[in-house]
Design a protein that fits this description.
Elements: E1 2-6, H1 17-28, E2 32-36, E3 48-51, H2 59-72, E4 78-80, H3 83-87, H4 89-95, E5 100-101, H5 107-110, E6 125-127, E7 130-131, H6 142-145, E8 150-151, E9 165-168, H7 179-192, E10 197-200, H8 211-218, E11 225-229, H9 235-248, E12 255-261, H10 267-279, E13 283-288, H11 307-320, H12 330-337, H13 342-346, H14 351-356
Parallel strand pairs: 1-2, 1-3, 3-4, 4-5, 6-9, 9-10, 11-12, 12-13
Antiparallel strand pairs: 7-8
This protein binds iron/sulfur cluster.
Length: 357
């Protein structure tokens, strides 16, 4: 059987894990698999076409990909899966009309090792040691995509020796009852491979940081320790978590804290969160809230916000930021701490003014 895996042309830093797992499954049955992005033409006529999807607002790229391969291979069944298909199945049925639509994770595939041979440019193990989350944050897609919290006791069998990094996609790694065991496995790898990189890509839940796991996390010497500051109620647990991690040996310059805005917060709340983080000496990564069913990126404007102010945040990330983040540099810190309101903090000086000072 010839299996075509289609990765639509939306932006993604990471390979499409679901398709890599599907490929491993089909190859184990003796099938031939190829991964393509439009307009690449496969070297065979497929018997089945699997198409993945990502953010809901990237749905048009998915439609383009499906239409492109349908035109090339009329009558061949198209199976659509991934995040958009799972979150908005009715929209996908209506707009894309796949022959079959798969919602959520495919349980039979979850333990299958991905077929990384499809992405020779990639250098990392992509792993889940847990699915779902113990929390139910109303703005988050995880409770809809993975309603059950499940976990596995180990990560070593998911890590490829030839790769220089492991990327965890667990939504809430510290909620796993096995997280200390897994941190200890990672510490063993780190002892053997000093430059091996570990990334808890979806962030760690500050409320679950303890002196014990902080010590284990610090021992991994991660380049980036990701945390989140979604609502003002998280201020104290977040501050405590940062202090515990610093006490355990994490350098403040290695933190990256995601700060959601344009949700239920006001611009003043956002400014206060940014001020907190910069004064604690950690970098801020502003994250604009997008509804889980947004069909167009950056189209949602929350009450209390205006398109102009949201644009100012985007500009300030581009101009003042480093890769979109605001590091706690002295000048930046002063700019935010001395501001009378968010608009004042985000004002960019004209080149003339900048030269004059
Ligand atoms: S803790 Fe994180 S992953 Fe869990 S529901 Fe909240 S935002 Fe989503």
């Amino acid at each position: 059987m010839n299996v075509l895996c289609v990765w639509p042309n939306y932006y993604s830093k990471y390979p499409p894990l679901g398709l890599l797992k599907l490929s491993a499954y089909h190859r184990s049955r003796g099938d031939i698999v190829q991964l393509v992005r439009p307009p690449e033409v496969p070297r065979f006529v497929p018997d089945v076409i699997y198409v993945t999807s990502l953010f809901t607002y990237a749905w048009e790229k998915v439609k383009e990909a499906v239409n492109f391969y349908r035109r090339l291979f009329p009558g061949k069944p198209v199976v659509l899966g991934g995040i958009y298909a799972s979150l908005m199945p009715e929209h996908a049925e209506e707009e894309i009309k796949p022959d079959y639509l798969w919602r959520g994770v495919i349980p039979e595939l979850d333990e299958v090792l991905p077929d990384y041979s499809l992405v020779p440019w990639w250098d990392g193990s992509l792993v889940f040691t847990s699915r779902g989350c113990i929390r139910r944050c109303p703005f988050c897609a995880v409770p809809k995509l993975e309603p059950e919290f499940t976990y596995r006791p180990s990560v070593t069998d998911l890590i490829c020796e030839r790769y220089s990094q492991v990327v965890f996609w667990d939504n809430n790694f510290l909620a796993s009852p096995y997280h200390m065991e897994i941190l200890s496995e990672l510490a063993d790898i780190k002892k053997r491979r000093r430059f091996f990189r570990i990334d808890f890509n979806q962030g760690l839940d500050a409320r679950l940081v303890t002196p014990e796991n902080a010590k284990a996390i610090a021992s991994l010497r991660m380049q980036v320790v990701r945390l989140a500051y979604d609502s003002s109620s998280q201020r104290e647990p977040l501050k405590r978590a940062i202090d515990m991690l610093v006490e355990a040996g994490v350098n403040r310059k290695n933190f990256l804290v995601y700060v959601m805005f344009n949700y239920e917060d006001t611009p003043d709340d956002f400014l206060r969160k940014v001020q907190d983080l910069l004064s604690w000496g950690v970098a801020v990564y502003p994250m604009r809230y997008q509804p889980t069913d947004a069909l167009k990126k950056d189209s949602y404007v929350a009450p209390g916000w205006t398109p102009e102010l949201l644009e100012m945040v985007a500009d300030a990330r581009r101009v003042l930021g480093v890769n979109g983040a605001w590091p706690p540099y002295e000048a930046l810190k002063r700019k935010f701490l001395d501001a009378s309101d968010l608009e004042d903090a985000l004002k960019l000086r004209s080149p003339k003014e900048a030269v004059a000072t």
